[in-house]
Amino acid sequence: MTTTSQPVDNALGASQTSGTGAQPPESLSPLEQEVLDEYARLVGNLNNLSTLLSELSTNPSAEILDALRRLERKTSLVFTLLKSSVYSIVMNQQAFSGAESDGGYGGAVGQMAGFGVEDGRQ
């Protein structure tokens, strides 16, 4: 990690001296130096992350692909269950609203009468 932080420290020192030109890097307070060191570590970590992500994007691993396939199946199942739940709710609401307007017989029974099923009315 010292190899990656060394160029970063030089770059930070150069930007610092070129900004004002009056203060050399040795006159930094301990807090300022600590902040600069944290930025240097952050730059190193971001470079490592960038390298790793570019490697993963060019060569996706079998584990990731398998996990994505499992996720796709689960998502499809959840979507199907959601559609069936919404359909069930809609049908129950239609049956309830039909029961109120049908005199107590329920809309589902009236709908079934169209298919050759008798509704039992006299």
TrEMBL record:
<keyword id="KW-0539">Nucleus</keyword>
<keyword id="KW-0493">Microtubule</keyword>
<dbReference type="GO" id="GO:0051301">
    <property type="term" value="P:cell division"/>
</dbReference>
<dbReference type="GO" id="GO:0072686">
    <property type="term" value="C:mitotic spindle"/>
</dbReference>
<keyword id="KW-0963">Cytoplasm</keyword>
<keyword id="KW-0498">Mitosis</keyword>
<keyword id="KW-0159">Chromosome partition</keyword>
<keyword id="KW-0131">Cell cycle</keyword>
<dbReference type="Pfam" id="PF08656">
    <property type="entry name" value="DASH_Dad3"/>
</dbReference>
<keyword id="KW-0158">Chromosome</keyword>
<dbReference type="GO" id="GO:0005874">
    <property type="term" value="C:microtubule"/>
</dbReference>
<dbReference type="GO" id="GO:0042729">
    <property type="term" value="C:DASH complex"/>
</dbReference>
<protein>
    <recommendedName>
        <fullName>DASH complex subunit DAD3</fullName>
    </recommendedName>
</protein>
<dbReference type="InterPro" id="IPR013965">
    <property type="entry name" value="DASH_Dad3"/>
</dbReference>
<keyword id="KW-0137">Centromere</keyword>
<dbReference type="GO" id="GO:0008608">
    <property type="term" value="P:attachment of spindle microtubules to kinetochore"/>
</dbReference>
<keyword id="KW-0995">Kinetochore</keyword>
<feature type="compositionally biased region" description="Polar residues">
    <location>
        <begin position="1"/>
        <end position="21"/>
    </location>
</feature>
<dbReference type="GO" id="GO:0051010">
    <property type="term" value="F:microtubule plus-end binding"/>
</dbReference>
<keyword id="KW-0132">Cell division</keyword>
<feature type="region of interest" description="Disordered">
    <location>
        <begin position="1"/>
        <end position="31"/>
    </location>
</feature>
<keyword id="KW-0206">Cytoskeleton</keyword>
<comment type="similarity">
    <text>Belongs to the DASH complex DAD3 family.</text>
</comment>
